[in-house]
Specification:
Two copies of one chain form a homodimer. The first copy, chain A, is an alpha/beta fold. Chain A folds into three domains: about 140 residues, NAD(P)-binding Rossmann-like Domain (Rossmann fold), CATH 3.40.50; about 150 residues, no CATH class; about 70 residues, RNA polymerase sigma factor, region 2, helix turn helix motif (Rna Polymerase Sigma Factor, Chain: A, Orthogonal Bundle), CATH 1.10.1740.10. Helix content of chain A is about 45%, strand content about 15%. In chain A, strand 1, helix 1 and strand 2 form a beta-alpha-beta unit. The longest helix of chain A has 19 residues. Chains A and B meet through strand 8, strand 10, strand 11, helix 13 and helix 14 of A and strand 8, strand 10, strand 11, helix 13 and helix 14 of B.
């Protein structure tokens, strides 16, 4: 049976990994819409290869270029933020929401409002707009499949179980490149050192988030929205090998864990084939070759970011959106050499203290909070 | 909602662990039948405590004693092998099959023939009578819930998944007390050394089986019958901490694992509450306190038992029943000081070579093969 698919953010790494799997199972899928931010040539190439019905470029100025690249193919071309949402609203069996950052929020909401099934890789949808998004999911009867490796692991462990039987959900964290560093060493850490992630090949922003453990804190916030077991039942554990992607303990003290290679194609495949399974090109897990799996309690004295995230979601309302915006500004300042590594979390905490607007009730209010939090954080740079 | 329960083998360790959990949830259960081999006083005490409808003692000579102990309680008393099967055939929501050894076969079959749900802790049902038993399960529409920690782990990992999507099932093995011993050291191993299991508190026979790794081989045979994925998709891995109880890898390279304390009450609770969950009195899993989980490939040069089991189930037919009987005789001979530890597997292999009867078609034929295999193995002692 052929299923229809839209990929929001087709030219990024999650989009590429998704299309790699689709390419291996061409008969199973018909591609409806592919979108990209600004990479016209890659978008056009993919739209042609997969015979998409429509290709959308977010940067409207580049629409003529896209039209030209798709001339004679019969593939519709569109551009701009509104076109992105219209493409996301086309009914499909599965929407892969892989646009990075706040730009992904409106298209995700458009897909949610169709009541569809959305494989979610965009962090902001649940971090900045958590309550707004989950309320819309409930109202429109949409289904969220978490595509992040940790949340996908939890989702898999919960299959066949009831959320009320969960005693504890534990997110694993690699601990990042500075896991064994002292605070003094981290003070002097360079951007190059921070982006050298031991297990995953990722972009600069998320690599820095991994080094501060802010990434794990943001995932903690996401987990709270995806799996409503209560904050006291959510934990983080440091697991440097990144083989165990997360664990769920049930009230009977059975714990289920999901393990796998550090390759996004595994959780993506889980979403694509859900509730079934599909083949992926990875090698079998060889635990004897890996030898040891180690686990450590997190150290929030050296890595305060997870505490900030826990406090932000406890405070609720606008706090997670403020935290996320402040973190983006602080990480950019670190990457451009303006601040020390340890200032990232400190700046986020300062912004959270200075700026506490009321809870957003719509995506528009989320965006306004995001903008103001960025301004407030930039003021700390001067 | 109250559910009805029968425990075959109520006075053994699995029976006691089951009743410990029932005791904590008295309102959820009504006990129909409790049975024991020869421990009349404990059986009568339990039957009174749990208000059983009937108590059955396998040793018929002790029936008068049981009658006396239950006088005036209104609890029916019965004795002998036939009474055991009649009690097992009474319709209940769940039968816990925890009789140790060949004596458990006929009562398990009686429960299977009612088409009921059977939580299976008896090894022989699937090792010696595998095809006979699984054919009866299919014919009568019975449901087997595996109660062994490893098979229960696999069962939990398969929830919400399809058997056809399984790429590999991996049984974990502690490796036993001789995991790091040389063959020469094992030659001189004493019964006291062999029964000192590092993680689980078990009887002498099963402790020796753990030391030879025959126990894991027998579980391999059971897994083959419970989870028909094919022998090439079944593996054993050595994991000395016994925290991960088994793993299932799917075709997409997601692996699910079940972890928990080395306490039989966890898998028992999983069977009692299936498909839900119930509370158990154990502590939460603390991976940071455990620190390291290690994994090794099994060494079949030092531990040939798993190879013998794999070959026996590959040969099929009567071979697993012959292996199991030969092993029981050899272990008894080792425990009584008649043979060296390393002779156990050697004797089993000799019996398998010398005696290869046709496949049993009934429990009666299984018993005949078992008896003859014991005789054949005892001949090797002289």
């Amino acid at each position: 049976m052929t299923r229809t698919l839209t990929i929001l953010g087709a030219t990024g790494s999650v989009g590429a990994s998704t299309l790699d799997l689709i390419r291996r199972n061409r008969d199973a899928w018909r591609v409806e819409a592919l979108t990209a931010n600004g990479n016209v040539s890659e978008l056009a190439r993919l739209a042609r290869e997969f015979g998409a019905a429509i290709a959308v470029i977010a940067d409207e100025a580049r629409l003529p270029e896209l039209r030209e690249a798709l001339a004679g193919t019969g593939i519709e071309a569109a551009g701009g933020a509104q076109a992105l949402c219209e493409a996301a609203a086309r009914p499909v069996d599965l929407t892969v929401a892989a646009i990075v950052g706040g730009a992904g929020l409106a298209p995700v909401m458009a897909a949610v409002e169709q009541g569809g099934t959305i494989a979610l890789a965009n962090k902001e949808a649940l971090v900045s707009a958590g309550e707004v998004m989950t309320a819309a999911v409930a109202r429109h009867g949409a289904t969220l499949l978490p595509m992040d490796s940790e949340h996908n692991a939890i989702f898999q462990c919960l299959a066949g179980n009831r959320i009320k039987d969960v005693a504890r959900i534990t997110l694993t964290a690699s601990g990042g490149p500075f896991r064994a560093w002292s605070l003094e060493q981290m003070d002097a850490a360079t951007p190059a050192q921070a982006v050298a992630h031991p297990n995953w090949d990722m972009g600069a922003k998320i690599s820095v988030d991994s080094a501060t453990m802010m990434n794990k804190g943001l995932e903690f916030i996401e987990a709270h929205h995806l799996f409503p077991v209560g904050l006291d039942r959510l934990r983080i554990i440091v697991h440097p090998q990144s083989v165990v992607h997360s664990l769920v303990e049930f009230r009977d003290r059975s714990t289920l864990a999901q393990l796998g290679p550090p390759d996004m194609r595994v959780p993506i495949a889980s979403c694509l084939a859900w509730p079934g399974r599909m083949d992926t090109p990875m090698q079998p897990l060889d635990l004897a070759a890996i030898g040891q799996l180690s686990f450590f309690a997190p150290d929030e004295a050296r890595f305060p970011a997870t505490r900030l995230c826990r406090e932000a979601i406890q405070a609720g309302g606008a706090a997670p959106a403020v935290l996320n915006a402040a973190n983006e500004v602080a990480v950019a300042a670190f990457l451009s050499g303006q601040i020390a590594f340890t200032r990232i979390a400190a700046m986020v905490e300062e912004t959270l203290t200075r700026y506490s607007p009321p809870a957003p009730g719509s995506l528009g209010e989320v965006f306004a909070i995001d903008r103001e939090a960025r301004v407030q954080t930039m003021l700390e740079l001067n």
